[in-house]
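Here is one chain, start to finish.
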Amino acid sequence: MTNRPKIAVIIPTYKACSHIMGVIDSVGPEVSCIYVVDDACPDGSGNFVLEHCKDDRVRVIHHVENQGVGGAVMTGYKSAIEDGMEILVKIDSDGQMDPSLILDFVEPIFSGEADYTKGNRFFDLEKITEMPVIRLFGNAVLSLMCKISSGYWNLFDPTNGYTAIHADVARRLPFEKISQRYFFETDILFRLNTLRAVVVDIPMDAKYGDEVSNLKISKIVGEFMVKHARNFFKRIFYNYYLRDMSLASIELPVGIIFLIFGLLYGGGHWIQSSLDGISNTAGTVMLSALPIIAGIQFLLGFVGHDVSSVPVRPIHQRRRKLCVRSES
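Its structure:
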């Protein structure tokens, strides 16, 4: 990588004294600065790093109150942007993420192919078998919900926290609105879609050691469903009615109206015929079936348009070209 960018690594830490030094020591020389964000850790992870770390690239930031992983990452983003970093990589402090992969995450952004990259542990089918079954099932469910709510139908493994983002894109994010806790990774995808940022999955292996994850997928699926539904309706309103309108903007409401009419009309007549003991006429059946079929077709058309509308032009590249033109 020639003319390498200034890479910053953000490491939010909470109860990770047994792993944090190993993570820091594994960060390669391609990284310019390492931001360790102590999220009000009761074990004093930040002070532990200050006492034992000799790497002059490391900067420790302390939170007075716990803000969750999202809040810690946003703090790291802000500090890195202020210091002039160009690409911001986030890895966890529990040792599950291999720092040797940092350049794999940075390269698509540096080469202008992406604005944001994230890990995907589902590329290698043999490695997937090492993942606990409950995590495997939970991630599959969350991935489907994330595709629907964020609009990134090409992505998988949304709870993967190994990510990288260009600073020009990060500074356009509404830091104060992004979810601060475990919904952070999926919420930021929704925010990125509203910016029309290009997001790319990076293959990585699932790695589990003796660390204990604080994320229990079985407990947060319900909460995530509510937040995904909220983001879905916001995204549809922003992308299809507020900022732009297309044929899909018509297909969605028409499909819903037809489908609901057909179900209500048909269901009402079916109940009435059951009570009266008289079969419905062919005309009644057709008048119920046709709106249902048409509604499904309209909705499928909308989904097809939504899938094909995944952003493909990196926004930080467009901004760079505009800057070059203005300077010339």
